[in-house]
Amino acid sequence: MFILAFAFVLTILGTSAAAVNETGNTNNTTLDVTGECSGSDPIITGTVTVNEYGHVRPLEGATIIVNSTTSGKVVGSTTTDANGYYSVNFYSTETSFNVIANYIGCTPITRTVTVSNGPNYPTDPNKYGTANFELTPKTATLSSMGNGQTVYIQGQNKNGFAGVINVNVGGTTYVAYCIDLFTPISMGDTLLVNGPLPGTAGDLPTEVDWGKVSYILNNYSPSSSTEAAAIQCAIWYFTSVHYGAYNASNPVGTYYQYMTAPNDGRIGGATGSTAVRDRAWQIINAAVSMQYPYSITVTPESITVLNGQSVTVTATVRDIDGNPLPGVRVYFQKTRGTLSSTSGVTDANGQVSVTLSSIGTTRNAIVTAYVSGNYGNLLYDDQYASVRKQNLVARNVLPLTISDFCIINTAVQADVTLTQTVNGGSSATVNVGDTVTYRVTATNANQNTATGILISDIIPAGLSGVTVTPSAGTTYYNGIWTIPTLNKLASATLTITGTATPAMAGLTTNNTANRTAQNQYNSQPTSVSASVYTKKADVAVTQTVNGGSSATANVGDTIIYIITAANNGLDAATNLRITDLLPSGLTDLSYTITGPGTYNLGTGLWNIGTLNSGATTILTITGKVTAAMAGLTTTNYANRTNQTEYNSLPASTNTTVYTKKADLSLSQTVNGQSSGTINGNVGDSVTFQITATNNGPDAATNINLRDIIPGGLTGITVTPSVGTYDSNTGIWTIPSLANGASATLTINGILGSSLAGQTITNTGNVISQTEYDPTTPTTTSIPVYTKIADVAVTQTVNGGSSATVNVNDTVTYIITAVNNGVDAATNLQITDIIPSGLTDLTYTITGTGTYNPSTGLWNIGTLNSGATTILTITGKVTAAMAGLTTTNYANRTNQTEYNPSPASTSTTVYTKLSDPIITQTVNGQNTGTVKVNVGDDVTFVVNAYCSGPDDATNIQIRDIIPAGLTDVTVTPSVGTYDSNTGIWTIPFLEKYTSATLTISGKAGTSMAGTSITNRAQEIYQTEYNPAPGDSTSIPVYTKMADVILTQTGNYQSNVVNFVVTATNNGPDTATNIKITDLIPSGLTGVTVTPSIGTYDSNTGVWTIPELLNGASATLTITGNATPQTTVTNTAEKTSQTEYDPTSDISTLSIYISDVDISVQNYPWYLNAITGEQLYQYTCGNSPVMTIDIRNLGPDDATGVTIEYKLGTGL
């Protein structure tokens, strides 16, 4: 047992009553026997409930302690079950006892119970008493707020108080904190007190790590407002984990795990100080889940030892998960004797032991082991209230103590020995129905009288008709044999007699007698047993017929019954007999046996005798089915009629054989009719449906029905509802047809033309089936007649079967319908949808019917034999038909009667189209630009190519000769050219051939510097042309280059330079330029230098091969001239390749003057004339030089340049 108590550890014996509380999961009754007495076996029962906020419920796990009202000794203890029920039984001579009920957080209640005889006394010697309890938890009242801060709750977008809530419990104030920040709380609220977190009441979420919450409560003190608020925020973090992390996308007001939003815990609002938040995260990260003691058990629970002996007591401590908890200090108290130690620390197995000695003679002692600690307690609200209050956690409201105790008695020795026999021996083997007698003997072999002996002996299950006889002076009730007194050397017996039942078969049934109590020390074994084995031989009798539990056969089939007897038991079966009397109707019977036994066909007795465990024997009986069995179910029974040993398996097995019989009938319809005649037309659908019905009594299998499909039907489909149809053989195979069921063969076809005017029928008959059928079914359909009528449809277009036209021509279609048959044609309809492209449509009908040009439907209706009706349709050809062959179809789209003539007639109209393509070349080119000079030949060749698809006629192409050409000639390869109109006429141009127009001329001066093109455009032809040709030639450009001459010159010291410059002002490059410049007379030692080209000194011609637009070239002429003479140079451009709108000449004359320049240089202090020194420099003076320049004539000098160089030293 283990005991969980709060706030106290009481002395168990002496004058104090035990008041302890247990929270274990066990509801087992504990039995404690104390005192030296002889008397009854009291049983005290009752229920414990708890009243929480006015709600009363059964209380599971409440502790019940029973002690003597006179001595205070504890005599028994237990805990309540899930229904709050308890039961304590013990041995005592007293009749008055104190019963104490206790539970976590509740005030213990003690009731005095007097036990008395029950309603079955004296058969039942026990005394009974009842004590019921209603416990009420202690209350905690919220009195005030302590240290704390207002913090931000981001997910709610509001502030809330975080910190200490002071609560009052029994006049003492405790520090508490909130669990769920989303539930309101008010000062003055009252909560109930419970045990260590998460407690045993309330409805706290299981996802919370309550060990970490307890850790925070026990390791942090709310010494300041910030610290108190941080502790509360950390607790909220753990207790709101089940809501999930903060999600910014959730609506405001959604519950979430506090402290997971980025601004949670800020002081005063979303932007406040993070002091509380930062400290809370330090506490959260440091928290560890406390593994605190949850249970303690002490062994032994109860023991009686010889006077003077010591006892070792072991305490085991476990956590909430049931794991051993090492390192826990356990304290021990005793009511008597000497403990080896008053405390100890648990080892790796969670255990610590002490020894109790010096107990005394014939004494009672109790050793209590307990563990104390401070943990978080639950303060919980009413979970059924419509408005919930906040649950709180508080530290040390109920300082936790868990305890357990053992009861130790010392006494004199009285060795009572237990022995037992069954049917006179230590064991016995019996059969079901045999008598079984257990005898338990208690013998006192000691010199001391034994008292208060209780022996538990539960009657073995399986015995029936049980009688229990205790010897004189003893009693037996509810499995307890009570021996109040057993003198030395005396014996007492308990005799249990009953009959072995099938429940014991194959089992060894033990009867065990356990000594559960004796006032004296007893060194003998406490338990004694005797066993009975009840034999069992499970012989399974099974049977098959043709390999199964049942068979279906036909007359003449062979039937094989196999009956198997297999001993699946551990024991041999003896005197085994099986009876199998074969059913009547079988002939040619024979049998074989594989294994032991004999068989008599006359009596059906299979006498097996003995069949050992695991053995098998088989009886095989063979016979042939006769007609007497047809349509009947025959059952064969194999019955186990005798066996000595118990057999739990069925004694009978049977199989059935059914002999099949099936009577088929056939019926047939045509298009749903079963009488009269079906009149149809070619093309009509015909459905023959044969129905095969099984009139039983059994399913018919492998039915073969022959139905050869009538000739002349087309598009045939054959659909069996069951089975398959072979079109080659005409056989419909039905694998199976149940009794009362039907199957159909549906033959769908179309009346073919070969049937016109004829009558057909369809016949089907059954040719075989597996089951017997007394008749041969057959069926023939009603007749089907096919009608016939012959309407010929013909057509012409413009009087023939085809026509060739041009756009805008008139087309006339004539459609004629003639009935050449002997029968009138009815519902006659001809569809003629006029081909697209025709306009101005008109129609006339000569004869019967109406015509709808939109739908093309010519609805004739009835056309009698030999009658004719004509539809004439006229329209005009449009461009949409050009180049196309247009077919007009007249289709007979409906006629009731068969018509062997073609249903369609057609004519064709071809609308001509010709597309001449015009292209051009210039001087043989068709890309780029043709560049020429004035006077060059220019030839435009216009090409007209007929690309089809038809020949072109009466083509007219306009081509106006480009201006500027001179000496023009125009030559057509086909047709004529009118120079006045510019029209080239081609009378006929065969498809895929060409014609050309050649225009030749010379580039005139008016074309210089410009580009021209030639345009040829088709303006008419007879045939339709979707895209009349239009061609513009590539450009022809006539080059021009304006080259001008300029000239400069100079002389020096009688040397003359002439520079002639030729500049191209464009717009084109000038080539092959020739400039004549004869050497001026009067020059000697002449040199001539061209910058580009060559100069011929003999002819005076300067040749420039090429001069780009904007470029210049120079000719420099240098020579010596006589002073006081004039030299003239003339340059004239005489030719160039490109046209130049101007001719250019340049003349320049230079006069060579005669001058004598004198230059003198001297210091200024000298007289320039006399050379007399006027001044002398000293060191540091700035010298002055004088330059004297004089022209001594005879001509003026211009442009004189003097070079002056300073000497060294200056």
From TrEMBL:
<dbReference type="InterPro" id="IPR047589">
    <property type="entry name" value="DUF11_rpt"/>
</dbReference>
<dbReference type="InterPro" id="IPR051172">
    <property type="entry name" value="Chlamydia_OmcB"/>
</dbReference>
<dbReference type="Pfam" id="PF02369">
    <property type="entry name" value="Big_1"/>
</dbReference>
<dbReference type="InterPro" id="IPR001434">
    <property type="entry name" value="OmcB-like_DUF11"/>
</dbReference>
<dbReference type="InterPro" id="IPR003344">
    <property type="entry name" value="Big_1_dom"/>
</dbReference>
<dbReference type="InterPro" id="IPR008964">
    <property type="entry name" value="Invasin/intimin_cell_adhesion"/>
</dbReference>
<dbReference type="InterPro" id="IPR008969">
    <property type="entry name" value="CarboxyPept-like_regulatory"/>
</dbReference>
<comment type="similarity">
    <text>Belongs to the intimin/invasin family.</text>
</comment>
<dbReference type="InterPro" id="IPR013783">
    <property type="entry name" value="Ig-like_fold"/>
</dbReference>
<dbReference type="Pfam" id="PF01345">
    <property type="entry name" value="DUF11"/>
</dbReference>
<protein>
    <submittedName>
        <fullName>DUF11 domain-containing protein</fullName>
    </submittedName>
</protein>
<feature type="domain" description="Big-1">
    <location>
        <begin position="293"/>
        <end position="390"/>
    </location>
</feature>
